[in-house]
Amino acid sequence: MNESPAVRDNVTTSWQDAPTRRLSAAGVQFAYRELGPNTDVPVVFLTHLAAVLDNWDPRVVDGIAAKHRVITFDNRGVGASSGSTPTTIEEMARDAVLFIRALGFDQVDLFGFSMGGMIAQVIAHEEPQLVRKLIIAGTGPAGGVGIDKVTRISYLDTARGLLTRQDPKQYLFFTRTPNGIRAGKEFLARLEERTNDRDKAITVRAFRAQLKAIHRWGLQKPANLATIHQPVLVANGESDKMVPTTNSFDLERRIPNSQLVIYPDAGHGGVFQFHQDFVQRALEFL
């Protein structure tokens, strides 16, 4: 097990070169990366459906890591992390808390994208003392509009990707306008910038487990989001087909101390399409 970053010196590296580390907690070997200055409150990234460490946009990671320690990790059973992938968002949240506490932190900021934003909501509700601020993007509340249809949309656009020999994220994350198509290609190219120490792809079994968890989240009764007292930044594109953008407005309306940014001519991956603006807003918020 590597020495906890909580007691190490400053970390100065780029996302492209950040080494993959291992941390053992409750029988699970978590794979993670960290970079940025040795700040007291790190920003822990919670990732999206089917994602591994290499699916984070380098511009977003490096941008936030310019001012804050950033820690990303593979969920249990995903990528290089061991164990079986949970089939509920609540279990994933408990795993994230396990990982954060094993690193030695008593308080963190969270950035959750898509499924990660669902996980972040649960952590803020169940472990309020652990979370200082939240950024949630491309996500929605339990029982949110259209979330139970993520499985169908994911499979359809995966098939479209195979037929057109394109990455499904080109369809899932971005609009089909000229701006959206260009932004998708640029995003996918950035994901390939790291060439050494690449992560393992998600397995079909883990992917299906995550889909089941998101489907269950979409069928749940609405939660009392008034219990989330932390400052929250909600972000999305105006045309999110995976987690319909109406859910972002719903989150902003129901979370007491929240603010909302909606990006024009953008979809689920709006924070990646408008990464420069998003990073600036995130740094100001944090």
TrEMBL record:
GO terms for molecular function: catalytic activity. Residues 42-271 form the AB hydrolase-1 domain. It comes from the Bacteria. Pfam families: Abhydrolase_1. This is Pimeloyl-ACP methyl ester carboxylesterase. It comes from Kribbella steppae.
